[in-house]
């Protein structure tokens, strides 16, 4: 009885063979990167990334050829790192309509093992509210969402374009306001030294 239960569990997509994050978030115009881990027995098998909530009819967007070579189709690339038993999928220039359920999978004879991943693409203005409300980074089930690199990149862009110039402007204003107050005392000291030097 237990043997049948184990065999039944192993027949389900993703069971024990491949794992990935439950969900990832990305920012519109940025990129989303997902890592899927698999057991060592699948090293040389082809790995794939497909889109669609239905496991049977999902559309394959990128697939490896059994090697570690990077394979790219349109805005999606996939690379297998066989020595670490993981493959990485990168979606570039993501759009809001890229929000969907995706699958990491492995090609084999019989049912392919795979695991579902929910990808959510937020509008650009969403990044400010995300910083303001850290609690929004967690799902309703309490699991922490994996944030994409685009959030970090946009933070540094905001830092470079807004925060640094404002800070420089404030420092310049303080120095400019302090400057005229110090100049008369320097001039007075110089003039008194000149008077002292020219006095008989």
Automatic annotation (TrEMBL):
GO MF entries: transmembrane signaling receptor activity
GO cellular component, one term: plasma membrane
Subcellular location: Membrane
Organism field: Leptonychotes weddellii
Ranges for domain Ig-like: 13-122
Secretion signal, residue range per the UniProt entry: 1-17
Segments crossing the lipid bilayer: 156-177
InterPro entries, per the entry: CD300_family_receptors, Ig-like_dom, Ig-like_dom_sf, Ig-like_fold, Ig_sub, Ig_V-set
Chief localization: membrane
Keywords: Disulfide bond, Membrane, Signal, Transmembrane, Transmembrane helix
Record's protein name: CMRF35-like molecule 7
């Amino acid at each position: 009885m237990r043997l049948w239960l184990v065999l039944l569990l192993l027949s389900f997509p993703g069971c024990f063979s491949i794992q990935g994050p439950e969900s990832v978030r990305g920012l519109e115009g940025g990129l989303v990167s997902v890592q899927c881990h698999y057991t060592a027995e699948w090293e040389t098998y082809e790995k794939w990334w497909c889109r669609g909530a239905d496991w049977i009819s999902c559309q394959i967007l990128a697939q490896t050829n059994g090697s570690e070579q990077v394979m790219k189709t349109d805005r999606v690339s996939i690379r297998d790192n066989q020595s670490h038993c993981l493959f990485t999928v990168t979606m570039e220039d993501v759009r809001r309509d890229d929000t969907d359920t995706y699958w990491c999978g492995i090609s084999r004879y019989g049912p392919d093992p795979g695991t579902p991943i929910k990808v959510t693409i937020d509008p650009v203005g969403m990044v400010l509210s995300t910083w303001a409300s850290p609690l929004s980074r967690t799902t309703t089930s309490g699991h922490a969402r994996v944030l994409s690199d685009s959030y970090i990149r946009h933070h540094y862009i905001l830092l470079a374009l807004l925060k640094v110039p404002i800070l420089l402007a404030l420092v310049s204003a303080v120095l400019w306001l302090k400057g005229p107050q110090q100049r008369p005392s320097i001039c007075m000291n110089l003039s008194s030294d000149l008077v002292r030097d020219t006095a008989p």
